[in-house]
């Protein structure tokens, strides 16, 4: 092929945090399927400084900028590279993808299927390892016994089925756990004495066990490639990765009993056909819509995610999915199975973080800058508990571009703290009870209204914008969040990239804040959510700041969901408040005057949001858009929910392809791009400023 010529040139390669980016001379060897690099062009005749096998690799243009891209090898090694401009990046990416596809297909087509093998695991791991039986009589060298079985002459080697891949992946997961236990046991030995952690034989055992596991992972990846080639002909080029679904429905393949398998076209459910026929964006108004809070009703949905049934039944599907992922892989473009989804959109989840509007409004009632910063920290730390629906970690729907969510809260004025002594902190945990605010019968002057709107402003990268305001108290919050998820082995990490801005217009103060990372742990057993990372809250005008640390649980010991933080005055470097506890349980606040306050989040009053009925919502509002998926999940019909979800995703891809072909940019509805962020089109600070200007002109 004309496109298979060798190419070479200088690229920047990211080494580490200390060294950073360095220029290196790269050579793409198409014949060998290798990407090699040298210190410079003059050293090209010497041994390469590094080499990547491109068979089975994934070439991914980065979302960070138009110059960066990554090469993820099947071995797990990754090169992060940067070209001089977008054109040069595209040149390298396209040539690398062509070479990768050629050598990947060659593996599947030219190598015969591997012979059947039986795996026997002899455990030397910890007795605490799940599913592993301790056998002290065996030493660490007898980690694996792999028996090769010769097939009788003339018999065909059977094509490996997905079930077999699942079995192998499960065995390898156990072996990896045993290998970690072995290394941990060696490293825990003393550094002196008869048997030490520096013993040459033990060091060799550590190295060879690691090399063995790496080799097994490489072999397993080749098995996957063979299976993909046999099932689908070849692997597609590009960076979009979809988990290898069987030809028949998951229900038929992974559990007994027949299930309805929806063929394409006319046999699909009528509701799915209706979703596919939703009008194109050009036929829908993109003008901002003013939502009347009087049309909204108190929400009666209470979809707690405490059901493990679907996860238990579909464990083999999860194993099948995990077998295709590599450590550090970006999951943004990975299609996840439907049964792990929450029954709400990510945009609605952001709204649920506002479920304590009394604490939100009370921020501006603080009499001093110090008190207002402390109140904001109190509100911030109480928001995460209600944002999670139940103890089980499930994933909200990925919003489609243009999706919106609207709601509001009504808060009786008598329930909002006006000074430090009247806040929720005045009550002991035992005195606090769970309430649902019922203010339907109150007059307009008796309550405050907090309005909320969220919109999915970008698909790649996935960016959401959300905005909330209380006009009566002249305060609002604007934020944009880019959710970036990565596979971390037996957990999934989600980085919340972005920034929020709280504006207290009565005081002329602005507070910037960020969000912690989230982790879904133990995804093969009982999945649960953990927050981690450091976040900062700053107010430039007053000089007050807060530093909050969400601590992830250490491997041994330690508490779950621990959080610590402090509020200080930057000019004097004086700490005015410290906080510690658990973000989903009890928080302890200690002030500079020696006073201590406890907040039990499980007993804290919750205000239900108000949402318009489905029949009054627009076609791209979250609940109406996902209603068929949600209804199917409530009914426990995973196959039907998957069909509805797939129809929405196909519609989004088709519209995105059409926009690309016609070079039509996407127009957002409520948020405008400003620099690197997104801002609500009519924020309160603009409308209040305009009203003040008009009043001044009138006077």
Throw out a few tags for this protein:
alpha+beta, phosphoprotein, acetylation, PH-domain like, globular, 7-stranded antiparallel β-sheet, 14 helices, 699 residues, 13-stranded antiparallel β-sheet, single chain, Oxysterol-bd
Topology diagram in text:
Layout lengths: L6 E8 L6 E9 L4 E5 L11 E4 L4 E4 L6 E5 L5 E5 L3 H25 L6 E5 L22 E5 L13 H26 L12 H33 L17 H5 L15 H7 L20 E2 L10 H5 L1 H8 L18 E5 H7 L4 H6 L6 H19 L7 E3 L6 E9 L34 E12 L4 E8 L4 E13 L4 E13 L4 E5 L3 E5 L6 E12 L4 E8 L10 E8 L4 E9 L3 E6 L4 E5 L9 E2 L10 H4 L1 H8 L3 H25 L8 E4 L2 E4 L3 H15 L1
Parallel strand pairs: 11-12
Antiparallel strand pairs: 1-2, 1-7, 2-3, 3-4, 5-6, 6-7, 8-9, 10-26, 13-14, 14-15, 15-16, 16-17, 17-18, 17-19, 18-20, 19-20, 20-21, 21-22, 22-23, 23-24, 24-25, 27-28
Count of helical segments? Answer: 14
What is the molecular shape? globular
Average residue-wise pLDDT: 75
Q: Poorly predicted ranges (pLDDT <50, ≥5 residues)?
A: 113-152, 233-285, 420-443
Q: Ends: how far apart?
A: 77 Å
Structural class by helix and strand composition? alpha+beta
Q: Main β-sheet, in a few words? A: 13 strands, antiparallel
Total beta strands? 28
Rg value: 28 Å
How much of the polypeptide forms β-strand, as a percent range? 25-35%
State the share of residues found in helices, binned by percent. 25-40%
